[in-house]
């Protein structure tokens, strides 16, 4: 059975009216061969529409038009921006861009093996697909044109690709493979080189790395997270000493440091991690519902300035849930988790519970991906009949903010859900996609 993708406010719907192409070959003694493309929906009622005839259509047996299902082991990325409704996910040996309102697919082909990693930058302009079989490749695509701008062949030689990360500013690519140790390759892909700009070996157990991730606020910083440990790393120009004076060279290097923690085995193994925006904190979640907090200071500091990477330290561990946490992310000044019990919970910066998902309890919340843009809204206190709560997000009538020009939703305060604080403030968060 194919896995399912669920939007928090809108589902992809029934695909029974998907376009099904048929080609009819018409020939005559004196005329050329022509092909007619018909859709199954155009035969409803026994009538065929002439508007779908395409005389230039040439059927090809190996041209993919539609893929059912997706790879649940690969993350799903929400590319919704300024009203678009596009998901990016992996299916078989392809990447897929799916517009669920238009029911259209753009399929990114070129991989010999199953696509095991996908990524995108913060602006969703660049996409990355990668496979991990023999002779594996990494392809970087431009979103609008779906043109492969860069392909890296066998990024780790004969070793299979194990992990991949793409920086939020689309400047850097970080890959990892296992040899005698875990080997990191750091790429400035826009320079078009076929060799990494920096290489670093890290001593970890084989197959123990959970993920590698760039800091969205500082693309020179990254983390490598294993089942029990966290490594902080930085990239930069190599410094050499000439005549006793430091001098920056043209070569790059990676520096990686283990950040030790004192969390016991009763809190479980690490399952996921995230950088917390505007705080310089790093959070890792575990298989027993705990969150490990790393930071540069023992006390919470809003909008803290990051220090050198070797100053990062383990702060504390907080038990927040009873289920295995599959995903943790930072969005709109909140920490959001999805666990094996199907719960989606929202916490403030101090890990105090603000809200939890109501009316939707999937078997498990495996992936969460939020819209690229923050929700633009205006709260009104009146309960005028002209302002109605929309049952579907597609029906929301948006106005324009005169100051920013951004689309704005008018929302009635008392009709909104409230958070779990004593102030009972209206709870709002940008739209997101939940994968189960």
From TrEMBL:
<keyword id="KW-0853">WD repeat</keyword>
<dbReference type="InterPro" id="IPR036322">
    <property type="entry name" value="WD40_repeat_dom_sf"/>
</dbReference>
<keyword id="KW-0966">Cell projection</keyword>
<feature type="region of interest" description="Disordered">
    <location>
        <begin position="1"/>
        <end position="31"/>
    </location>
</feature>
<dbReference type="InterPro" id="IPR015943">
    <property type="entry name" value="WD40/YVTN_repeat-like_dom_sf"/>
</dbReference>
<protein>
    <submittedName>
        <fullName>Uncharacterized protein</fullName>
    </submittedName>
</protein>
<dbReference type="InterPro" id="IPR050630">
    <property type="entry name" value="WD_repeat_EMAP"/>
</dbReference>
<keyword id="KW-0677">Repeat</keyword>
<feature type="compositionally biased region" description="Polar residues">
    <location>
        <begin position="1"/>
        <end position="11"/>
    </location>
</feature>
<feature type="compositionally biased region" description="Basic and acidic residues">
    <location>
        <begin position="12"/>
        <end position="24"/>
    </location>
</feature>
């Amino acid at each position: 059975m194919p896995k399912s993708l669920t939007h928090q406010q809108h589902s992809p719907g029934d695909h029974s009216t998907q376009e099904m192409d048929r080609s009819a070959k018409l020939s005559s003694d004196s005329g050329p061969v022509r092909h007619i493309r018909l859709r199954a929906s155009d035969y409803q009622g026994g009538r065929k529409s002439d508007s779908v005839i395409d005389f230039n259509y040439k059927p090809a047996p190996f041209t993919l038009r539609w893929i059912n299902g997706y790879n649940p082991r690969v993350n799903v990325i929400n590319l919704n921006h300024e009203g678009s409704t596009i998901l990016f996910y992996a299916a078989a040996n392809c990447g897929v861009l799916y517009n669920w309102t238009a029911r259209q697919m753009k399929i990114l082909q070129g991989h010999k093996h199953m696509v095991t990693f996908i990524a995108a930058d913060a602006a969703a302009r660049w996409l990355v697909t990668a496979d991990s079989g023999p002779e594996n490749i990494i392809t970087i695509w431009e979103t609008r044109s779906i043109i492969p701008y860069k392909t890296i062949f066998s990024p780790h030689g004969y070793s299979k690709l194990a992990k991949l990360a793409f920086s939020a500013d689309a400047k850097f690519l970080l890959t990892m493979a296992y040899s005698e140790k875990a080997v990191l390759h750091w790429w400035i892909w826009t320079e078009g080189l076929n060799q990494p700009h920096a290489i670093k070996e890290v001593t970890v157990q084989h197959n123990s790395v959970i993920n590698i991730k760039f800091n969205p606020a500082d693309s020179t910083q990254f983390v490598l997270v294993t089942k029990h440990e966290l490594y902080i790393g930085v990239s930069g120009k190599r410094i050499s000493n000439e005549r006793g004076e430091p001098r920056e060279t043209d070569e790059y290097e990676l520096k990686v440091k283990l950040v030790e923690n004192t969390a016991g085995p009763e809190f479980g193994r690490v399952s996921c991690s995230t950088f917390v925006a505007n705080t310089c904190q790093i959070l890792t979640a575990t298989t027993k519902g705990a969150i490990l907090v790393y930071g540069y200071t023992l006390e919470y500091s809003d909008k803290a300035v990051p220090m050198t990477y070797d100053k990062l330290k383990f702060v504390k561990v907080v038990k927040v849930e009873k289920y295995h946490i599959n995903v943790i992310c930072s969005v709109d000044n909140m920490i959001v988790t999805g666990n094996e019990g199907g719960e989606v919970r929202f916490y403030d910066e101090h890990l105090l519970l603000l809200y939890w998902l109501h009316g939707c309890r999937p078997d498990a919340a495996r992936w969460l991906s939020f819209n690229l843009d923050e929700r633009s809204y205006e709260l009104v206190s009146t309960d005028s009949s002209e302002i109605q709560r929309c049952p579907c997000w597609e029906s929301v009538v948006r106005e324009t903010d005169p100051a920013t020009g951004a689309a704005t939703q008018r929302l009635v305060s008392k009709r909104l859900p409230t958070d779990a604080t004593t102030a009972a403030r209206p709870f709002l968060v940008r739209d997101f996609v939940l994968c189960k």
